[in-house]
């Protein structure tokens, strides 16, 4: 294990176990011991949950509602294609590894099992279901060292494979840069599971300036570009990116999916805490 992976693991573990993020991945309402609220009694509800003191005071029957103490089935799914092998402060793939590690330790902290997959042209099992720290370490190593160059993303295939693979209702974290999302459709997946999307970007990708003569290589499709990036090219690129993100955000809102965007220069822990509260 190289020094960068060790640093990610030590930092993530310290942040998770010293913050409340690990206790806030999700809450389901149902039978349990964690009190949630009082609500007016409805016909057919269990009379054992009636709060007789409050009911007597309000002259109406009220029942106690509890958070379910069910173990969550958490799945961490980084989307590793060629475009994540890029970054000015750090590579997006490294940030994805850090976010996945934070989520893995968070699951362990709250006593839930987690498993992980790597998605791009296919859906590959990364780490099996576990509650152990070594599974987080194994996942981090696999994600960090994964050869993403030359890999293309197939959103349609990913959604279908996740739907068929995960039989039980799960909490799914999809982590990627989400470019070219024309075929992204999470409607069916979000009806069966609780889906959270984490968009990983580099500031340069959204704030590109006139570069003049350049030599670029597409790390997903493999072709090279030699030419001039002028003001007109930049304007077209930014317009296209804004259209992509507008479609992405609208789709996620329609599917009732929570999401956040994290940049390579940011510490992801604060945004993850806000996302999971």
UniProtKB/TrEMBL annotation:
Matches recorded under InterPro entries: DUF58
A UniProt-annotated Pfam family: DUF58
Record-annotated DUF58 domain positions: 38-225
Superkingdom of the source species: Bacteria
UniProt protein name: DUF58 domain-containing protein
């Amino acid at each position: 294990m190289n020094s960068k992976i060790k640093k990610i693991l030590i930092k993530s573990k310290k942040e998770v176990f010293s913050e409340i993020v690990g206790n806030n991945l999700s809450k389901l309402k149902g039978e349990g011991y964690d009190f949630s609220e009082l609500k007016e009694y409805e016909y057919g509800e269990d009379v054992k949950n009636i709060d007789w003191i409050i009911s007597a005071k309000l002259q109406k029957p009220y029942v106690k509602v509890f958070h379910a103490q069910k173990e969550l089935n958490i799945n961490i799914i980084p989307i590793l294609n060629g475009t994540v092998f890029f970054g000015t402060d750090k590579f997006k793939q490294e940030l994805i590894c850090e976010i996945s590690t934070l989520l893995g330790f968070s699951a362990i902290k709250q006593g839930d099992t987690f498993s992980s997959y790597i998605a791009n042209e296919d859906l590959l099992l990364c780490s099996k279901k576990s509650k152990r720290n070594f599974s987080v370490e194994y996942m981090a190593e696999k994600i960090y060292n994964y050869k993403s160059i030359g890999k293309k993303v197939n959103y349609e295939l990913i959604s279908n494979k996740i739907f068929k693979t995960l039989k039980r209702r799960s909490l799914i974290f999809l982590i990627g840069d989400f470019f070219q999302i024309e075929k992204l459709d999470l409607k069916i997946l979000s009806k069966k599971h609780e889906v959270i999307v984490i968009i990983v970007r580099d500031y340069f990708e959204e704030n590109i300036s006139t570069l003049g003569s350049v030599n670029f290589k597409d790390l997903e499709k493999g072709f090279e570009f030699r030419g001039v990036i002028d003001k007109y090219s930049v304007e077209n690129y930014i317009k296209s990116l804004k259209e992509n993100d507008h479609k992405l955000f609208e789709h996620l809102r329609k599917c009732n999916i929570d999401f956040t965007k994290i940049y390579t220069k940011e510490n992801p822990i604060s945004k993850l805490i806000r996302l999971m509260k």
